[in-house]
């Protein structure tokens, strides 16, 4: 194997990147075929960086994956089977193991395909800055994505030193994050960092907009200034994208950090279960509505509307729920339409093939 095959070596093993008995069991058929286990550290078009027990190497992605299925290209966090390098060719990605969890959003192009932001994650740290006015609608979006992923969300309030009353802000955020721990932190003072370290476990992804303090928070977890940071703009509190790509980094105390670029758009992609978790109080009240298909708009006997009128649920919260439901329904309809189109195209291909076969047979007579 050439020296250029390995990007760099490191003292870590696959276990440091989360390899366990479940991974070994899933990989067993590939091991019998002479393949080697790996975890995708960074994915690019046509190639990826993957960690193995021998170090981190660059592997080719044959055919740049199946373009008809947007979830098929490898993603940071994927467990994979690599075909070892030969004297004539470098290592090649052979298969991606089934994902245990996946953080998926709609693509920026607004097509029916989803974009996988991270795979096989255990904890989603939804980062919300206290240095700027709170935007609960954005927090609800991120939590819906996080719950839908199958991982455990944790809301991390950053920059508490820039907030006049951080505990009041935490109580406000807790109202829109049922079933989720809400932690107040400050990288400048060290507030809450010990508690945060104790709560986060496994493979941890930092999710949030630019300027929320994800990279600064990541550096605190890593114990070194490894992730690039930049100050936010004073005029609007927004930050620049200091993280240019997603990558995996082992944490000194155990676990793996997956840093992501700041997200300008956080579109839902078929996240019905995530919405039910994020708006658990509305979902619970809906069980008492007179009609099982109640839309909570103007129906008589609606328990949700009664709760809003009684002041138990803010109108803003219900409006956000309706908005995200509409967006999710639209995403689902686009997905269904694409699947119908694919099925129709397959039928047409079969018909054309049969017609050509019959025409060939007739010419042979």
TrEMBL record:
It is found in: Cytoplasm. Residues 111-266 form the CP-type G domain. Its EC number is 3.6.1.-. SUPFAM superfamilies: P-loop containing nucleoside triphosphate hydrolases. Keywords: Cytoplasm, GTP-binding, Hydrolase, Metal-binding, Nucleotide-binding, Ribosome biogenesis, RNA-binding, rRNA-binding, Zinc. Monomer. Associates with 30S ribosomal subunit, binds 16S rRNA. This is Small ribosomal subunit biogenesis GTPase RsgA. It comes from Streptomyces marokkonensis. The gene is rsgA_4.
